[in-house]
């Protein structure tokens, strides 16, 4: 990063071409990280057959990325506050590019899983500081626009992953799913080096012992849930759960009283921030209950060909992108509580409408319902993220950005585990039961969001 760049003050923002270039760098980095998270799902059967591994073992190609990403989010957010958010994003892109090369060259499950874990750490470096960078790139009064654009990139990355994977696999072998990251990553890195602003740094934000406790807490809890979903022994589940609970307790105890805690215990005492984190978690539990289970409904219940399944899931990210231009402006003018409550209510009704589909639906019956749920999610996400960022104390952008991503990834992981548990415990139409659960969880998120109107948490900053 050039040394002649001035250090930006939080909320000051960039202007003109400088803002556009910096936001393009953030958007491309976020898209790259999330596209690769989703892109490998479609290829699991192909990769498993090529590496001669079982379907259960192949799942670790996904789990290794997600697990590494979740446990690295808060430590990398703290590291970003110490060395600069732009610099950490650039480090994340380098890790992503190098690990993508090794993923493509892997010839065993162990090598591929380890390379994917490094990719997950690179993705965490990017995602943990993405919204913090937006807080510096955009002036305070229009920060909602940047957060809305970031939400579009999240939706596009997750939603377009299966489609991109299908296109690549139709013309090339599975290693090209990872090789494609190299030119895209290099383009993002060059843009990041040229345009990302210098941000203030803080000493004492990264604590090695806290990072280890954080990894044990989040990692063990996720593994405990995964063990339940896959009907592991009670001893294994209890061992993981106990490790996670004790490590979490020790982490919170260690972080109390620190000026810049890695796990932002002090920020969770701020009611609007704490409520925003809780609502975000519920929203992503709901979305993953739908995203993971509904393809099974389409393929097994409605007998849609695999190629059509991907197309029928596309209205979800399209719905998010359709409302983005309007929400990017409204989120700076309309109270976040109102928008996020309307959004989650709409998403809940979209899931309910999907549950009430006829036995032999026309494709349009499915498309408008998925699109409605996606539009609701697009209305919800930017205002909720905005309220978390603007209620965070000055100088704590890294922690706030990290917690935004923690609520997202923990919600997604929980949603996926609930799908696995539902499929394991319910024999008759389990995917439709997942839609019921998704509807209920989204509605609970709406009620929690609406409660801010009556508890004095509504903010219009």
Plain-language structure description:
- The protein is mostly helical and 461 residues long.
- The chain has three domains: 1-206, MFS general substrate transporter like domains (Growth Hormone, Chain: A); 208-257; 264-452, MFS general substrate transporter like domains (Growth Hormone, Chain: A), CATH 1.20.1250.
- 78% of the residues lie in helices and 0% in strands.
- The protein has 17 helices and no strands.
- Helix 3 packs parallel to helix 5 (109-137), helix 11 (271-301) runs antiparallel to helix 17 (430-450) and helix 14 (336-355) packs antiparallel against helix 15 (363-390).
- It starts with 16 loop residues before the first helix and ends in an 11-residue tail after the last helix.
- Keywords: Membrane, Transmembrane, Transmembrane helix, Transport.
- GO terms for molecular function: transmembrane transporter activity.
- The chain crosses the membrane at residues 20-40, 60-81, 93-114, 120-138, 147-170, 176-196, 208-228, 234-252, 273-296, 308-327, 334-357, 410-429, 435-454.
- Residues 22-457 form the Major facilitator superfamily (MFS) profile domain.
SSE topology sketch:
Blueprint: H1 17-51, H2 55-58, H3 60-83, H4 85-105, H5 109-137, H6 143-171, H7 176-179, H8 181-195, H9 208-229, H10 234-255, H11 271-301, H12 306-313, H13 315-330, H14 336-355, H15 363-390, H16 397-425, H17 430-450
Helix pairs in contact: 1-3, 1-5, 1-6, 1-8, 3-4, 3-5, 3-9, 3-16, 4-5, 4-8, 5-6, 5-16, 6-12, 6-13, 6-15, 9-10, 9-16, 11-12, 11-15, 11-16, 11-17, 13-15, 14-15, 14-17, 16-17
